[in-house]
Each structure stands twice: as structure tokens, then as C-alpha cells.
Amino acid sequence: QARLVESGGGVVQSGGSLRLSCVVSGCIWGINVMGWYGQVPGKQRELVASATRGGNTNYADFVKGRFTITRDNAKNTVYLQMNSLKPENTAVYYCNMKPYGPNIDYWGQGTQVTVSS
Prior knowledge:
The chain is mostly beta strands. It is built from no helices and eleven strands.
């Protein structure tokens, strides 16, 4: 059973930066896509950024130019560098992993990011 462990959330002032990390272990099929989703109370979880194993990336429009997703395939780790943070970026951020083979989504436990104005 794959396990995702996130770290790096916290409280930051508007305009500040945070870096999230997510380490995947126990995935027997190989890791295809890794990404980050954000969720606020009462709303659905939505994609923030994702990256394929080959390095193709995808960003939500509201983070383009401010957030950068990177992967270290050797370490089964994905990062999300968040710059120029805004209060509306406040959310619980969840790491997501899609393996090769089975159509399954794996999720981390979530890490809270709070941006104060």
C-alpha cells in the first residue's frame, strides 16, 4: 500500500513563501503523476499543480507564475514552491499520486497553509 507523507505547511504573511514536500513510499507499480491539490472548507478539492515522471507540468491558472512544482524521481518526492502567497491561497494542501497500471489515486494526510493579510 502506497503511503504519502507531506511536510512544509504553516503560517506565512501575504507575499511570503513556503515549500511543501511529499515523499511517497510503498508504491509497487511505479509513480506516474504526482501533484498537489488544495481544499478549503465547503469546497471541492482542486488541482494546484501536477508533474509527470517525464517532467511535464500543469498548473491551475491562479498559481501560474507564483508556484513551481518539481520532482525528484530518485527520492520519490515532489515539491511545491509557493511564492508571492495570497490570503486566498489559504487551504489544506494534499499530495496526490497516480501510479502506472491501476487507475487509483493515493492521497497524503494534508498540510495546512495559512496566509495572513
